[in-house]
Amino acid sequence: MKLLLENWNKFLNEEKKGAYSFDYDETLIKYKPDPEDPQFSVLYDKPHEENIAKLRELAAAGETVYIVTSRSKRTGDKFPWDTAPDPEDLVADLNLPVKSIHYTNGNLKAETLLSLGVIEHWDDDEDEIAAAQEAGIKANLVSGDVELRETMLSMWAYCLHEGGVEVAPKMKKYLDKHPYMEPDGLQEKWSEKYKRSIDCNNPKGFSQKAHCAGRKKRKKTN
Question: What is the pTM of this model?
């Protein structure tokens, strides 16, 4: 009976404590401009040491820690423009004490955070911070290079679109702003002559790589 009561009290304390969560891109890992295409492309840089340290500190104190990312879980080969490690790879490489990784597929994270019992979250997205706070979750905005972040999101939206992947609703605004979009009611700045001149055996920068990936995918479907 004593053991049963101790276990019950432990359960109640854990429920009361709640859990903690971290976004992934630009929260647990950092990016840098692509020197071959700095205006429209980013490359993986390194782990975000400050937030990694905070994650380890929480876990060492006995707290439950999750990674909650708006990415979609990868099921096939990596895209050529994606130079960052998958969340699972980062966790394994750095031996991070994370209970599990959750993907929201471009949707706001608040609902997932609530379902996990998260009481505090770290994120670089102001919309995610606002949604979490509205749900009653303490949310910490991770400061960073706003221009770099916008470049990263614009790059992903365009690359996914070029690769024939449905872009999440909240990412579609970046398609309207991107100067290299195909002519589907959006902007077109690349001439057909320029597109034909691209060497897809040696594409330069993310823009050309994304174009070549889309060209390859379209060939497969035709």
Answer: 0.75
